[in-house]
Task: structure prediction
Amino acid sequence: MPEKPTNTKPQSTFQPKPYNSGLVRKMLTLTAMLVMVLYSMKEAGKPENWAWMGFEAPAGPREENNNSGTPKVAAKTNANNTNANASPNSDRANAASVAADPTNKSARPSPAPLNTPVIRLAQASATAPFSQGHQQTELPTDSGRFWTSFFANLKTTEQLEWMSLLEALSGNQPATRSPASQAQAKLIDLAEKRRDAFSNKSLDQIASLPQASEKRSQVSQNYFEANKLWQNQISPALAASKAAEDITLRQQQAMASLLSHLDIDALNLVQDKTAVGWTGDTVAWKRCWNRIHQSQIGKPAYVTRIQLAGQPQEFRGDAITVNGFVRSIETRRANPDSSIVGPNTGDEEQNYYILWVQPADSDAGPYCVYCLNPPEQLPHTQAELKDYQWLAKISGIFFKNRTYQATDRVRYSPLILANRFEMKPPVTDHPALKWKLSPKLMAGLLALIPLVAVSVVWYAVRSTVNRKRLPSKKSQEELNIFLGDLKDNPSIKNDLEQIQAISEHEDDIT
Result:
């Protein structure tokens, strides 16, 4: 009888389920790549990372010039005031060739509500600062349209004379007044003549509209409000100026509101990406320096360079604060008739300083600061300023983005006008002095992310495929008993025993 083969330990009947490792690997890889893209987008949105990539700060929405060189007002300008800007300033047309892609002041004065007084005694100020340009002025709609049109049609010298007259009439010394100059008297006569023509045109417009129509009622209301302000406040004040007579408080407040309104129009004439001294900047330049000399710049708000470079029309004429490190300073002499020279200085000439400041929050480019009184501890040599780490906190008026000649090409820098500023000693925990992630290391980390993700997926898949699922201890004991019973059961035969049994059966039959 052949020898029975020895029984080997049976393999486990529990087989692992099929595992689609390829699909999981692809999904995890795509997830890792998505995370890398999101992180890259977040880092690319930081202005401090733009310089090493060769990009500049984004410019604001560009405004095209019309044929006369007058800048168009932005979309948020009040619709009733936009038509008044159609007439260009004659001096600005001569300077259109030096203007490169201007962006202009977008905040226009909104008309006062129909049922509100023309002058609010509680809010009107005799010395309305330039910074109120972003707020509503107190002029009615038609009055604002007329004065915007009147101011835009004046020459630069006439604009300066007119603003000087309004500043005198809205001042705080009504007791002793000198008569208006000959040039100012001519401007008063011109204003009266054009105001009569504007009034006649408004009456013709009212007469052409249908009776009892809503538009006619609105136009009539605007006309009577503007006419009331002209006859009761502005016209008597102008006539008193010619005769060197005193004016009432309400007339003085009306002239202050008119001055505030024209301040905004003067800021609208400023064009970005032009040189300092451009003709269209003259009126706003003088008004800004007047505010600095009178210490009426208002409460400054902290801004960054990217805000000034990208949205100059939103901050023009506003009091702002910036932080940075002075890297260059230049001393210049101001002419006696210059706007930079303050009143009653007593000196024939006065120094002012041009500073180039590296922003503490960005590496995109410098600030250009015109300053009258820099701190005494500030060095005046290029060698000392190269690594000078005292932080400059500069509060002043943002004027525009000016052009300057860099080593490679013409660039643009925010121009700030200031009287003085503060210096703070260097601190180790200042954000500008902390260690920054280098661009090369950042790129290496971004490239390493998908490799690490793929490695983790590969390890997870390998460990899942090679792992055997074994029965528990109790199941193994039951399985051993079951296999022992099968081994001792005589009815259970292996293949050889079954063949032998069949052969014996055949022999019995034969």
In short: Residues 473 and 479 are 10 Å apart (CA to CA). Residues 52-136 have pLDDT under 50 and may be disordered. The two ends are 21 Å apart (CA to CA). Strands lie at 301-302, 319-334, 350-359, 367-371, 391-405, 410-418, 421-424.
